[in-house]
Amino acid sequence: MNRPRTSRSPAEAKPDDGMLADTDAAGGRPAWRGIVYPLLISVLALGALFAVLGLGLGVPDDLPSGTTATPPAAATQASETLLRIVGALAAVAAVAAAGGALARRLGQPPVVGEIAAGLLLGPSCLGAFLPASKELFFPDAAQPVLGLLAQVGLILFMFSVGSEFDPSQLRRSGRVVGAVSQGSMIIPFVLGVLSSGLVYHEFAAGRVGFLPFAIFLGTAMSITAFPVLARIVQESGLSRHPLGTMAMTCAAACDVIAWGALATAMAVAGAGSVWGAGGTVLLAAAVAAVVLLLGRPLVRAAERWADRSGLPAAARLVFLLLLVFSLARLTDLIGVHSIFGAFLAGLLLPHRAGSALTAVQVRVDSLNRRLLLPLFFLSVGMTVDLTQVTGHAGLLLAAAVAVVTAVAGKLVGTAVTARTAGLSWRYSLGLGVLLNARGVTEIVVLRAGLDAGLINQNAFTVLVVMAVLTTVMTGPALGLLGLGSRSATGTPPHSAPDSDPVPREKESV
Q1: Max alpha carbon distance in the chain (Å)?
Q2: pTM for this one?
Q3: Nearest-5° angle of CA 278, CA 281, CA 287?
Q4: Contact 288, 317 (CB under 8 A)
Q5: What angle do CA 165, 166, 170 make, to 5 degrees?
Q6: Under 8 Å between Cβ of 191 and 208
Q7: 3-state secondary structure at position 301
Q8: Which top CATH class is 136-486?
Q9: Backbone dihedral region of 154: left (phi > 0), alpha (psi from -120 to 50 degrees) or beta?
Q10: Residue whose C-alpha is closest to residue 365's, from 388, 384, 392, 346
Q11: Which of 139-148, 175-184, 289-298, 368-377 shows the lowest mean pLDDT across its residues?
């Protein structure tokens, strides 16, 4: 007996009616969605699983063949390991949150406190006085999984950096911003390459040649932390000031150049020569061009289809993770670091106001910054041991050279270029101070160099400290210049002679 189909008002309709019964086109979802959506989610989930397995989360090599059941002892050990993992994540997240809150009270970006917390938990501080603390934050039994989660946090962070990148700022930039961007990048890069001869024997990894090491050190000297700079600009009251806008635009341009230089250094190290690295660099550039030119229209078309079909957030999440880790694996196979693929995925999926996919991206980024990224900072802190550096005169001298080169290169390169472009000395120095902040981006670059065998452990320790120092000094230096205090309108106070930092005939931001 056929029952007459009735339509219900939106207030009476349930979200899952389309999964329970066939409904008419006006009053509910068609029945086929109850079959297609689960199949689609399953396919995407399997694809994400294969991508994660490709990154190294697989069956251990020493697992006996033919094992079909887990012995009770192994099951108990697995549950204990899982408990240690969850406990470590909770402890690290709590310490990072406390460090971020303390940094905010001290007038620093919260990420500075999170980085400092990771360093303090390592062998340089807490680990030296309380070695047993390592079992709480980074237990030996859970290190492989925690290390993998830290890499996941790094990849997701680079994805968020790419998705927040606004290339329209570069297209709108005028001659002043273009000149300052080049000066703030090229001059510290050249100084870093020139100083590499002084620190090569102390900082270079055992088998790396001088050329890739010099390119990498020049890149490390010229980095600007775009995400941290955005927070500094906002919290310093400069977000609506031309100086803050110019600093953000210059930092975006520097990021593009820096990632290209880092890819070149890693390609040269892998190939052994510049000529051998040419194929890797060209292949990486070709992949990036294809992904951005062909991928963006496809992604937007898929997003429009998902919006029309009412695709659930879970399916969008699986699609996002599959895309990010697939591109990360692709660039890793090419011969450059997986962070480039994650950054490329972010450029492919930029933030768009009102987009359902962007809403998923924001939630993923929020969870990552609170849970997995602090774990990455902890993994960095566990490899930084200042006690190995302070007792070595040669390392201390090399550290002094690196810090002076980094700070002087950014300040001089940016300030002189900005002054010749027409800015006052006050704003030129302020711009140099802002672009001198290196923060998380520098640590990501250093970790990539350490993993690629471009620098040794001592160099990594020294340069991580340099990244923290250059970020911490930004706020106080802005205050000395009278640019770091808030006014009632949210813009910094300034005097009449240089109230407009950008010359009128060249203003473009």
Answers
A1: 92
A2: 0.69
A3: 135
A4: no
A5: 120
A6: no
A7: helix
A8: mainly alpha
A9: alpha
A10: 346
A11: 175-184
390 or 374, higher pLDDT: 374
Three-state helix/strand/coil letters over 172-213: HCCHHHHHHHHHHHHHHHHHHHHHHHHHHHHHECCCCCHHHH
HSE-up of 371 (CA within 13 Å, CB side)? Answer: 15
**Averaged pLDDT, 107-120:** 85
- Written in H, E and C, the secondary structure of 401-446 is HHHHHHHHHHHHHHHHHHHHCCCCHHHHHHHHHHHCCCHHHHHHHH
At position 270, the amino acid (one-letter code) is: G
* Backbone angle region of 237, left / alpha / beta, with phi > 0 → left and psi within -120 to 50 → alpha: left
CB 509 within 8 A of CB 502: yes
**Quick one: pLDDT band at residue 122, thresholds 50, 70, 90?**
confident
CA 405 to chain centre: 24
* Average pLDDT over all residues of the chain: 76
Contact 421, 428 (CB under 8 A): no
Mean pLDDT to the nearest integer, 472-485:
82
Q: Give me the sign of the Cα torsion angle 226, 340, 112, 402.
A: negative
Helix (H) or strand (E) holding 387: helix 387-390
Angle at 292 between CA 167 and CA 340, to 5 degrees: 80
Question: CB neighbours (10 Å) of residue 178?
Answer: 16
The amino acid present at 324, given as its one-letter code, is V
By percentage, how much of the chain surpasses pLDDT 90? 7
Residue written as token pair 């300052």? 180
**What's the alpha-carbon Rg for the chain, to the nearest Å?**
25
CA dihedral defined by 164, 167, 172, 176, rounded to 10 degrees?
90
Amino acid letter, residue 506? K
Return contacts of 292-301, CB within 8 angstroms, 24+ apart: 292/344, 292/347, 292/348, 295/348, 296/348, 299/348, 299/349
- Taking the chain, what is the end-to-end CA distance rounded to the nearest angstrom? 71
| Predicted local distance difference test score (pLDDT) of residue 238 | 79
What pLDDT, on a 0 to 100 scale, did the predictor assign at position 167?
Answer: 64
Convert 96-139 into a string of H (helix), E (strand) and C (coil).
HHHHHHHHHHCCCCHHHHHHHHHHHCCCCCHHHHCHHHHHHHCC
Query: What is the C-alpha to C-alpha distance for residues 397 and 402, in angstroms, rounded to an integer?
Result: 9
- Among 385, 339, 478, 370, which Cα is nearest to 111's? 370
Q: The tokens 């406990």 sit on which residue?
A: 87
Distance CA 81, CA 84 (A): 5
Sorted by sequence, the CB contacts under 8 Å of residue 73 that are 6+ apart come out as none
